Amino acid sequence: MTEPVRSPCNPGSPFNRRQVWENQAFLSALRRTGNAREAARSVGLSRSTFLKRRARDPVFATAWEQALVVAQADLHARGGAPDPGSATPGIDANEPRIVKMRSGRLQLRRVRPRQITRAVEQAFLSALSATANVRLSAAAAGFHSASFYARRRQSPAFAREMRLALETGYEQLEMALLAAAEPQSYLDDAWRHNDPPPIPSMTAEVALQMLYLHNKSVHQLAEPPHIKRRRGESIEAHSYRLGEMYEARQERQREEFNIAEAARRAGGTPHLFGPKILPLPALDQVTGWSKANARKG
Fold first, then answer.
1. pLDDT at residue 122 in the model
2. Per-residue pLDDT reduced to its tens digit, 22-46
């Protein structure tokens, strides 16, 4: 059986030899990181093990606090407290980062392996702008789609970029379908190269019914499905829904205009509808503007 020895931190608190070494290694790591969980992990134990030892040994608890003070001074001397969720491209995601906690204390942490970083966000948005498929884009970025939906709820900026990427992907798919539907594509027009089959026998009533049912569709008079009054929807609710849809469209147009304006200002492009600044001549060469009589002067 291992003989208990007195801890160097507190001779009155018995720790066996292995625990003494573990405590020393833990305090050394704590002075470097200011992170008890990371320090305990470096020793190969859990944080709760050292919390129990701190509760048992007041002197070990004092050494713990002293190690945190040393760590704070060292981390403040390094400066900066970047967010671990905003990884910098070209930097290893597992590289320790200095993180500022809510209490104001600094810690040295590692980015969680499954945390969405800025690089992951950009990869997801890039894939979304090409496919308009959230699940496919999330899988391409290495995450589940629910993670990006949660990020959209938490971050208005990411929600805006996700919507813009989705609109871009929608336009990409729409243009691809339009390209396939062009007359020169000949992808879906094989039926037009043959005579239509004979009309099956039907009564005049059935023929008139078919004409009535498809009159609006053929002549482009059908009401768009999204503005149709839904079953059981009152007139007031229908009007309110249409008004909300209109306001949402207006808000998106304003947002798109603001984004375009920000890009224009960043690029130094003159405003398209702004007043034109006429070139001025040299002001000392302008004459005929004064009513003063030069002869009387």
1. 92
2. 999 999 999 988 888 888 888 888 8
How far apart, in whole angstroms, are the C-alpha atoms of residue 136 and residue 148?
A: 12
| Contact residues for 203 (Cβ-Cβ < 8 A; gap 6+) | none
Closest CA to 136 of 154, 119, 123: 123
Give the Cβ contact number of residue 197 at 10 Å. Answer: 6
Residue where the block lists tokens 């302008």: 286
Q: What is the DSSP letter of 283?
A: G
The gap between the terminal CA atoms of the chain, to the nearest Å, is 118
Q: Are 71 and 32 in contact (CB under 8 A)?
A: yes
User: How far is 125 from 138, CA to CA, in rounded Å?
Assistant: 9
What is the signed CA dihedral for 10, 11, 15, 20, rounded to 10 degrees?
60
**Greater model confidence, 281 or 53:** 53
Residues in the chain: 297
Question: In three state form, how does the secondary structure of 65-109 look?
Answer: HHHHHHHHHHHHHHCCCCCCCCCCCCCCCCCCEEEECCCCCEEEE
Query: Do 38 and 29 meet the contact criterion of CB atoms below 8 Å apart?
Result: yes
Give SS3 for 229.
coil
What ranges do the domains of the chain cover? 4-109, 118-185, 239-268
